Amino acid sequence: MSTATRRRVGVAGALVGAASAGVAAAAFAKRYAIGRIRLRPDLEAGEPFGELRGRSAAVTASDGLVLHAEVDGPEDAPLTVVLCHGYTLNLDSWHYQRRDLLDSYRMVLWDQRSHGRSPRAPVDDHGSLIDRLGEDLAEVIEELVPGPCVLVGHSMGGMTIMALADRHPELFEEKIRGVALISTSAGRLGEVSLGLPALLARVVHTVTPGTVSLLGRRGALVDRGREAANDLAFLMLRHLGFGDATNVSPTVVDFVESMIRSTPFEVIADFYPALMAHDKLAALGVLDDVPTSIIVGDKDWLTPVDHSKAMAAALPRAQFTEVPDSSHLVQLERPTVVNDALRDLIKRALADEAAANAAEADRTAEAGGDGGDGAGGPRG
């Protein structure tokens, strides 16, 4: 072998060796970082995430899909709380709300189509998918809610409630007594900066739809890659999904990551265009007739504070809560703040219900009194 050849081989070997060493060093650094995170005290380590179960129920949607739902809490409660989860999550994402409210209120939790324990649904028209979720919610209410209720929606779940208001406003006069919109948006998600400079954000929004669609056609392959990269997903979710990454419980991060990873990438790709096209600002007026609570983390980069403020401007009677040091998963990151806001909303809903019942009783009494005077007066 000539000197020149040996030199080329030596250089190539050095480059391969350096690259291998770099990959190994990066992998070691990642494992070291995750190891250090998991060794910290974790107050949530014993929390039974994903283990709380209620009475199982099945709701058949108008297109024949059988949705999974659970009913929990006392059947004789004064109202039902219906919880609608977000994109790539499932009904278990309401762990703290279920745990802390079920002793006082009847609760209905359901897995939106293609999520959790509800089966995968074919998508014929991405543009109408959020409207389809609104119809699903109407059917859940009809099947599982016998009396007055409060609706609570996180992210895509909030959009589901807006779609219900758009298509079935009469329900907000008949059954729905209050609404909570958590980390959600009435539209224009395609303009969100994602925490990036404006130019880079535009590039990301331009490239992402085609990339998601392409990867969705290779969903099984992508899912295998997601399984292999769960440590990386843990680190990314810890920093992007929570406002206080330093103090968030690793157990909570693992719990959320497992829900996201259990959602097939084909489903992620199916729903993405509908979320970007969502626009229900005009439907918010329906909610102004019932007590409404709007809750958002101050570091939410997926559905930013400005979107919640826009909803609050459209609903001047709504209670607006901006939760400090929290991001998109505020119901898991700051459950006490969220639960307090929900309890306040329920009290307002019950007060409105009591006032409406009293007014109806007065009208009935007046009608009966008028009839009695007419029937019992002198005949002539």
Automatic annotation (TrEMBL):
Q: Which residues form the AB hydrolase-1 domain?
A: 80-335
Region Disordered, as annotated, extends over 357-380
The record's GO molecular-function terms, alphabetically, read: catalytic activity
Among Gene3D superfamilies, the record links this protein to: alpha/beta hydrolase
The cross-references to Pfam families, in alphabetical order and at most eight, read: Abhydrolase_1
Compositionally skewed regions (Gly residues) per UniProt: 368-380
**SUPFAM superfamilies annotated for this entry?**
alpha/beta-Hydrolases
Q: What is this protein called?
A: Pimeloyl-ACP methyl ester carboxylesterase
